[in-house]
Structure formats: structure tokens, C-alpha cells
Amino acid sequence: MKRIINTLSIIFCLIFFGIYKAQASKNYLEIEWKNGSDAAKKIMKSNFYYDPLDSWSPFGNDIGNDTYYLYCDWKREHPNENIKKFMEEELVSSGYSGFDVYLDGKNPEKLKKIVDTMLNKYIDLNAINNMIISLAFTQLFLEGHIEPEVKKWAEAAFSREMVYLDFWNGKDGEMEERKVRMNQLLNDLRKG
After folding, report:
1. Three-class DSSP category at 2
2. Which of 15, 73, 96, 138 has the most Cβ atoms closer than 10 angstroms to its Cβ?
3. Model pLDDT for residues 168-187, shown as the tens digit of each residue
4. In whole angstroms, what is the distance from residue 183 CA to residue 186 CA?
5. What's the pLDDT tens digit per position in 8-28?
6. DSSP string covering 19-84, please?
């Protein structure tokens, strides 16, 4: 366990310093309402979208924020490449190669069996879901639309998150707050 924590700490530091350097660059739009596409300005109205400390925001959690910047770089380098390539690369580099991004929560037992094979169980699943949800809203923010395939992945991610709502049952009302947020994000996703 200690070895895993040390490895994760090193990875976090490398990503943090790389992303921090990227965020300070003029090559990226700052994630603010005023910088979003016209469609994003109409759909992504809630303040939480632009709150870097809101871990339930598509850009507020570490993985979601990283996904935004990684996608910006990837899109600049691969303007005509299929989005599947980006997702495959990110899943592999994150240690989740082979994960079926279309898998939803309609069969909770099947999902739980798959999650039970993951090293960090739901934590790993949540990381995958955050990556996919962020990718969808990143496309909306930057490009004014969400590719149909990405929308399917994100709908499946929300479905998977709903299966694990009880994970957020620690603090009073946190689970209900999480459910409300997931529903709002899903509704906004469908408008994109």
C-alpha cells in the first residue's frame, strides 16, 4: 500500500507541475463563463462549472481539470483525429486500459463485479467517470457541441455514478447533494 501511495504521489506531482505550467500559458482558455463557446454560455450557466474548488464540477476535480488541458493539447496536435483515440490514450496512461466506456449502470451487479476487479474499486471507476464527464463539458466549453459518441460515454458515466451514490453517504445530505448535481449535469449534457 505504501508503495502505491508513493507512486501516486510522484505521479500527482508530475501532473500537477505539468498542468500548472500549462494553466499559466496563453495557449489555453481559462475556464470562465466569458471564455466559453456560445452554446456553453447558454447551457453551463451554474457557477459551479467555473469553481476550481468544486470537486463535483467537471473541471473542479483534479482529473477533470487535467482532462481539460490534456484535451486542449491533444486537439491542437490531432485536429482531425477521432476522439476515441484520445480516450484510449488517456485510459491507457491512467492505468485503465480495456475499460468499456459504454458500460452503464443498468446492470448494477455486472458493474460491481467489474469494479471489484479494479485496484482501488470505486475510486478508480470515479476517476474514469470524471475523465469522461470532463471531456464532454470540455468539448461543449471549447467547441460548442459534444460529439455524439462522447455524449454516450458521459451518459454511461452518469449511470455508473448513480449506482455508487451510497459512497457519498458520509456527511449529512451529501448523497442527496451528489444526486442533484449528477442530475443537473446530465440534463445540461443532453442540451449540448
Report:
1. helix
2. 138
3. 776 677 888 889 999 999 99
4. 5
5. 455 554 455 454 444 445 688
6. HHHHHTSTTS--S-GGGS-HHHHHH--SGGGG-TT-TTSTTTSHHHHHHHHHHHHHHHH-TTS-HH
